[in-house]
């Protein structure tokens, strides 16, 4: 038989796109080591898919990390996985600084929100300062009337764990020390940018019965709480310490990561991107694809029309014209001047309605 390859030679390469290991859907419990040392050394960061796996690693149900894991896996839906990192012993049996634990945890990808377990409130400020320099979030529960973390942080958010505003910290149910774990496990089950962190029902934690004044103080101070409305226990507020919404911060992180990954794959899977208008258009197309995906998630607003019928686009993009880029810039092979504007879709938390009955 004659071989067609003698005349037509075809070779096919399989180009594999880069995958995303920068997940925004998992929490990291950071806490104290088990009271009873486990038989096998704990990894710097362990990944656990069930509560049984946490127990097998050596965390007893009465250990802070074990209690926090129980709260996480009690939510509906359950998290697919949780990450756990514990403080290691330093000199003279003292525990290492919490910043060292977190910096070591950075070497393991896949987690997004830091949730302390058994770490004193006096250390929350250190964690907040560390988190602000990362593409992560920090959630915590406080058992006092005033949030212990300053209101200058955009990546930290606190939950008031008090059941009554007259409670002392020692009177609070043990489960409510991990109210933040419940809220994070619940809200990370939604796609990034599609959720609000208010009005979510949580399991295995107690609602707060706070005075109107205390609720207002928490809301005005950009702190969050869990309370009962119309017979349902729901989260309220949903803001970071600096006043931005938690879902917006998570959505921005998602959009940045998605756009980076799309553009990286464009360069990875193409022989090259020419520094011409057609090449620049390929970059712009990936920007647009990412923004369209953000619209589909509910992060970026849809195109709308004002009262006069004028179009208000949800987003717009701008890229330079190749002919206007100077030779030095082209020689550097750096494309700059690519920008976009987008309107956040936001969410409705309060509805004000007025009516009038007339005969």
Explain this structure to me?
- The chain is α/β, with parallel strands linked by helices and 359 residues long.
- It folds into two domains: 27-244, no CATH class; 270-342, no CATH class.
- 28% of the residues lie in helices and 14% in strands.
- Helix 2 (64-73) packs parallel to helix 5 (179-187) and helix 7 (246-269) packs antiparallel against helix 8.
- The mean pLDDT is 94.
Please outline what is shown here.
The chain is an alpha/beta fold. It has 9 helices and 12 strands.
Q: Which strand order does the major sheet show?
A: 2-3-1-4-5-6
Outline, from the CA principal axes? globular
| Number of beta-strand segments | 12
Major sheet summary line: 6 strands, mixed
Number of helices: 9
The helical percent reads: 25-40%
Given as residue ranges, the uncertain stretches (5+ residues, pLDDT < 50) are: none
Nearest-angstrom radius of gyration? Answer: 25 Å
- SSE pattern: EEHHEHEHEEHHEEHHEEEHE
Mean pLDDT: 94
Domains, number: 2
Give the DSSP E fraction (strand runs of 2 or more residues).
5-15%
Structural class: alpha/beta
Straight-line N-to-C gap: 95 Å
């Amino acid at each position: 038989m004659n071989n067609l390859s003698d005349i037509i030679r075809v070779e096919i390469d399989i180009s594999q796109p880069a995958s995303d290991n920068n997940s925004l859907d998992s929490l990291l419990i950071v806490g104290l080591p088990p009271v009873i040392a486990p038989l096998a050394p704990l990894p710097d960061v362990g990944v656990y898919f069930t509560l049984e796996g946490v127990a097998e690693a050596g965390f007893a149900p009465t250990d802070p990390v074990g209690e926090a894991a129980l709260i996480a896996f009690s939510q509906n839906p359950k998290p697919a996985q949780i990450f756990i990192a514990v403080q290691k012993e330093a000199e003279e049996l003292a525990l290492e600084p919490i910043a060292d634990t977190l910096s070591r945890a950075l070497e393991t990808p896949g987690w997004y929100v830091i949730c302390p377990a058994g770490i004193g409130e006096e250390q929350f400020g250190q964690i907040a300062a560390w988190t602000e320099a990362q593409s992560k979030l920090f959630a915590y529960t406080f058992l006092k009337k005033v949030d212990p973390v300053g209101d200058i942080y955009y990546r930290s958010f606190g939950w008031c764990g008090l059941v009554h505003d007259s409670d002392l910290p020692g009177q609070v149910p043990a489960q409510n020390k991990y109210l933040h774990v419940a809220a994070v496990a619940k809200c990370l089950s939604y796609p990034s940018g599609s959720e609000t962190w208010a009005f979510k029902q949580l399991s295995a934690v107690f609602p707060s019965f706070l005075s109107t004044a205390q609720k207002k103080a928490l809301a005005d101070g950009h702190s969050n709480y869990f309370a009962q409305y119309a017979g349902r226990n729901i989260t309220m507020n949903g803001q970071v310490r600096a006043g931005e919404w938690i879902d917006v911060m998570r959505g921005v992180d998602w959009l940045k990561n998605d756009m980076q990954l799309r553009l990286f794959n464009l360069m990875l899977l193409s022989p090259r991107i020419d520094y011409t208008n057609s090449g620049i258009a390929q970059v712009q197309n990936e920007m647009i694809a990412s923004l369209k995906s953000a619209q589909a998630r509910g992060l970026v607003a849809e195109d709308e029309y004002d009262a006069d019928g004028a179009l208000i686009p949800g987003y717009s993009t701008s890229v330079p014209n190749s002919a206007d880029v100077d030779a030095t810039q082209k020689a550097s092979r750096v494309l700059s001047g690519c920008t976009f504007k987008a309107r956040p879709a936001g969410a409705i938390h309060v509805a004000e309605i007025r009516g009038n009955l007339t005969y």
